[in-house]
């Protein structure tokens, strides 16, 4: 059973904007770096085509609170924690910590709720139960880590 | 006094992902299309270097709820509404409507809080009062539009 | 028969980088704005699933020469011209002109070669002839425009 | 003296498009991952503000030839080689190799020419000589590697 994953990225030039800091939309791309690493760590891909029918994970809610800016070449740790697990959805908390500098500081905090879906014959997507063998490997993080 | 702005975009190929829909991070870029259009409509740029000292508008909170996917070449209206106005911050609500199809439908709803800052001599940013001549042109949208 | 298309964009904040100018990779996204507008203008989408089998248009070569920077809120015209038409490939020339300012100036020039493909049963892509009804609507631009 | 650098990335979901492959514009962002790693490896940042006056490195020419697609979660090595060194410009060759699979294969090949500039008092940029201490650390790669 797993409830967390840490990914580290270095801020790229193309991720900055003319204000000299990481564009706020990129934090949502950083979240996926940790989420997809978490899936891989468990032996899965977020593109789950090994199941019959195949399932996917569209996002239904995303949020981020920005405390301090990230700049070019900063090293950022994205610490993902499972905050909720329901039959068809998962929610994650993300703590962004800047690693360079004297001591790591939390620069942003985000959250994401994703839903497990299958594609219907007409091409539309419908929510479905998370495949049991995958769900069985995931648990909600301890409350003190989610504070 | 103004409290809203509508921008229209057509979904680009590069904004889609392998799931065949707009990547969720792009809704945050779409929000800025409407916000910056709002600023321009009032005669300003979000890069406010005509003031002394110059002010900028970093984001402190961003959120989006996704109801239906957007696909390549969909036409989307981003309807921005001022939801809160404080001495140093502004908050907006965004309603995303897909215009193509039989009737417009709301596919997502987002929000953004931005803070007015100046750059200190040491390069750090500090919150400051919104310049009066700009603040005087903005008001909060009627409650029924924010529902 | 058509050989050109002009699209206009306004530079977005998220397209700039910390150097204060449009990140060079975005010119390749701008090229597609014009290319896909050209396809739509002819009554098609670059996602050509009305043909049997469906065809797609992956890029095989892309190039851009940068002369002057584009900045936030600049208005840029992307002038696309068909420069070559073969049985399975199309090549385009792109002239980027900044429209704001005293007179339009060419700030960059690019090119793109795309190939018409179908998906094989094993998921791989194979080059195929451009569908005749689409090819019949396209011609190479006059030499003086390609200079 | 150094003439090459290798960076490795894993393809992210947000870098794919609805065709299921990496959007072609992202190869130009991948090039910078290797280039900036090369600079860091030599003890510099591409944001060279330690020199008086500070210098920057805008791109004047970029090119890429695409041979095979990259897909989500592929591991790609970006092998950068210095292909030309002039007083004010540097040119690089980039070989993109997909590392997963039975044996590494070259999926794309690109090139970039960048120019060393300083900012003039009026805000415009002017080409300038590459700072000697930095130039002295760089040499052109052997011809056989550039083939």
Low-confidence segments of chain A: none
CATH superfamily of chain A: Hotdog Thioesterase
Portion in helices of chain A: 10-25%
N-to-C span of chain A: 21 Å
* Number of strand segments of chain A: 7
The overall pLDDT average of chain A reads 96
Domains of chain A (count): 1
What is the CATH class name of chain A?
A: Alpha Beta
Question: β content of chain A, as a range?
Answer: 35-45%
What does this protein structure show overall?
The structure is a homotetramer of 147-residue chains. Chain A has a 5-stranded antiparallel beta sheet with strand order 1-3-4-5-2, covered by helices on one side. A two-stranded antiparallel sheet of chain A has the order 6-7. Helices cover 14% and strands 36% of the residues of chain A. Chain A has helices at residues 26-41, 132-135; strands spanning 4-10, 59-66, 75-85, 89-98, 105-115, 117-119, 125-127. By secondary structure, chain A is mainly β. Chain A has a single domain, classed as Hotdog Thioesterase (Thiol Ester Dehydrase, Chain A, Roll), CATH 3.10.129.10. Chain A has 2 helices and 7 strands; from the N terminus they run E-H-E-E-E-E-E-E-H. Chains in contact: A-B, A-C, A-D, B-C, B-D, C-D. Chains A and D meet through helix 1 of A and helix 1 of D. Strand 2 (59-66) of chain C pairs antiparallel with strand 3 of chain D.
Descriptors:
mainly beta, 14% helix, 2 helices, 7 strands, 147 residues, homotetramer, Thiol Ester Dehydrase, Chain A, two-stranded antiparallel ribbon, globular, five-stranded antiparallel β-sheet
Q: How is this structure best summarized?
A:
Chain A has 147 residues and is mainly β.
């Amino acid at each position: 059973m797993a409830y967390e994953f840490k990914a580290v990225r270095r801020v790229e030039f193309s991720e900055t904007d003319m204000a000299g800091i990481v564009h706020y939309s990129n934090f949502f791309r950083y979240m996926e770096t940790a989420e997809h690493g978490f899936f891989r760590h468990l032996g899965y891909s977020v593109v789950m085509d090994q199941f019959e029918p195949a399932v996917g994970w569209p996002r239904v809610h995303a949020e981020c609170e920005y405390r301090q800016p990230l700049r070019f070449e900063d090293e950022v740790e994205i610490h993902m924690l499972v905050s909720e697990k329901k039959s068809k959805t998962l929610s994650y908390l993300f703590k962004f910590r800047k690693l360079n500098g004297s001591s790591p500081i939390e620069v942003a905090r985000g959250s994401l709720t994703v839903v497990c879906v299958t594609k219907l014959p007409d091409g539309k997507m419908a929510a479905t139960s998370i495949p049991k063998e995958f769900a069985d490997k995931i648990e909600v993080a301890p409350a003190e880590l989610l504070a």
